[in-house]
Amino acid sequence: LAADDNVARAAIVAAVKAIAPCEAYGALAAGADILIAEAVLRTQAELHAILPSPPDRFRRHCVEVVDPAWGERFDGCIEW
Predict the structure, then answer these.
(1) Average confidence (pLDDT) per 10 residues, the chain, 80 residues
(2) Is the pTM of this model over 0.90?
């Protein structure tokens, strides 16, 4: 997914609102992982990031490699 894919973002936001999770788990890779995490965080649910490598390495190999625009959004999810 492109970082500015508003159609995907809107569909994910609607699905997360319908599900209304208390918590969510994910890897935060570029694309749907980050869009879902952002939607979950907007609902005040707990987000648990499960990364298979240290955050800086994961960011470099699974986030920025797709599109550098995802890097800042990854950081925002991690900081939350």
Answers:
(1) 95 97 96 97 95 96 96 95
(2) yes
